[in-house]
Amino acid sequence: MQFNHFSIIDKSFDQELSDLASLGFKFDTSSTAKVNLKNWLLTAPIAMTSLAATDQETISDFLDSETPLTWNIFYAISLQLLDFVANFDFQLAEAITFANAINLPLVDLSTKTSAKQLISAIYLLMNSRRQTGMTLVEHWVSEGLLPLDNHYHFFNDKSLATFDTSQLIREVVYVESSVDTQNRGEYDLVKVEIIRPLFDGKLPAIMTASPYHFGTNVKANDDKLHHMNVELVEKPLDRLAISESTLTLPEYPATEIPLVDNNQATEHFTHTWTYSLNDYFLARGFASIYVASVGTRDSDGFQTSGDYQQIAGVTAVIDWLNGRARAFTNRQKTHILTADWANGHVAMTGKSYLGTLAYGAATTGVAGLDIILAEAGITNWYDYYRENGLVRSPGGYPGEDLDVLAELTYSRNLDAADYLVNNSAYQKQLADMSQALDRTSGDYNAYWHARNYLPHVDKVKADILIVHGLQDFNVTPSHAFNFWHTLPEHVTKHAFLHQGSHIYMNNWQSIDFSETINAYFSAKLLARDLTLDLPPVIWQKNNIAQSFERLPEFGGHDIEVLPLGFAGELDQFENHYPAETFEQYSKNFQTFKADLFEDKANAAIIDIHLPETLQINGQIVLDLRLKLNDTKGMLSAQVLDFGSKKRLTDVSTLLEPKTIDRGRNFMLDDLRDLTLVDKPYQVVTKGFMNLQNRQQLTEINSVIADEWFRVELRLQPTIYDFEAGDTLRLVLYSTDFEHTVRDNREVSYTVNLEKSHLYLPKTKKEGHKI
């Protein structure tokens, strides 16, 4: 295994002493390093009898002997404290060699083991991760090093788990939003669940907005799925004009409603879904807030699916936390209550739709939202269900569209009374939605523009932390890439780009992700100095297990041009499949993908052997000269790293169940990570296009049968290392049984390889570290 530490903050020696003293560790620089080591170990919550110092001495024998302390002995002891097993995981006599191999943070080993150097080494060690997924200091705190006193304690500028999670307050409030999505003549109420520790003061809040939180309607979702086996439609020539839409908020008078006695919530709850990263922060003095917004169970309104009305249902909670909106004790609005426990500082967290609403909230510029941690979020809903004028399903979900997702998340229908009163009007709105999203043409229109957050990034005030998997073809990396590049220069931004698919990374063994976010949130939400030195991009290498690098940018500026063929060279592929094959692929798109990548499906395959190491960073651009014997068509393209070798899994592997303590014997989490396995190939990127939209998204052009034309297709952005001798496989085809409509017409495509190229954005491998 390998450690990757990004949360460790450099401190002066005096600051190190102060931090250690706050945990009860006293040092005397006038004593020897060995004496200081002994005093530290005697104070620590460990079983001294289980440790060895050398091949000949237990730790007790060593501390009482005349054997001098060396760095190898210190790190032999340290590795055992980090949960590595001597004589099996590593050899005691070769502790430093092993420490280097796992990338353990080390002091300068060329210096003598003086008391001062030893204390700094101890400080660094306590900030290091154990094999089982927690830093040493956090593990010791969870074992009782500090009392549960419901007060803040910091070590290396990170809040420690000293808030008693057995005394958490769990309450429900109903926040008054600024929208009326049913046109009832009153503002929609939004149900909010709050979990907060006891504290004699004001707490920051970490909010996760999830339309799934109060339940989902899976049956309605499945019944709404669209048929994919349809013919591609030829579109009339047009230029699409999209006008900017603005959300007009109603203005209703506020009735006088009394404050509830003692300003205490009257509705409470027990069990609910929680995000483990939020649980981690609960024990460290941060409230957790969960909101599902309008159109969900126990809230008012209709499911408006990604527009700024839904966003307003989220930002209303931030307004309430800052005293700018009202909340009620119940849906009958009999009493109001204020967030007198909140300090007004809010972060948003969560993956997928959860990260989407965080992006959307940030683009409103709402005061009090200091930072978002958007994980695999959507930044433009058109790019989730469409691509370049083509209806495209997100990876793994053929036939889904935004009206299908609306059915899934309109959880008000799960309550019989709500169904009786509101379903008829909701179904009319849903029918309007299905019409407006236009599956016939796949074109960008006003409906999609109202769900595009990118035009509003100039309003962003919050710091932006992005987490995205480069193997995520559900919410594709373009969402993170486009938001990253659209943000104004003054906005602080950082990205964690991993090699996984649509997954969380907060419980991985190899990276101190939770601790890094702790350092950031502790500063931004508790009005402390941000001392964390976080690079712009933290990128997980694709060809080495548990290896992350610092990069200066997401998107390289150098371009390498690769020709696809020689003079006069053509290639061809067909669109049509025999009925039996078409039915087989339609029933199981995984079978189609396996055949496609191994040159057994209808496709043009171009293999390019790379003589040198190459790091792709950004969007590969495919420049093709193409013709087809029809007046309508679509182009699909994928780039593979082809050839059998070990590659990372795109979903995390369980390494150890329930070994990470999120507080103090509180919400145990699994230890996971991406692991290396044998693979015949790896998808690097992909892209899709309706050939009538080949010039630009809002322009519909003709396709003239048997005439050559130029196509420029930008593929999904990525960062990927190819080694010298690797094979880059380009796959060109039409129908994709996972993503596109399944058009089985008899159409032939011809590619002029001589006049076609790949444009690869790159950073030179030897020069990309910072």
UniProtKB/TrEMBL annotation:
Domain of life of the source: Bacteria
Species: Pseudolactococcus chungangensis CAU 28 = DSM 22330
NCBIfam families: PRK05371.1-4 (NF003783)
Catalytic activity field: Hydrolyzes Xaa-Pro-|- bonds to release unblocked, N-terminal dipeptides from substrates including Ala-Pro-|-p-nitroanilide and (sequentially) Tyr-Pro-|-Phe-Pro-|-Gly-Pro-|-Ile
Group of enzyme by EC: hydrolase
Domain Xaa-Pro dipeptidyl-peptidase C-terminal positions: 518-759
UniProt GO BP: proteolysis
Name under which the protein is recorded: Xaa-Pro dipeptidyl-peptidase
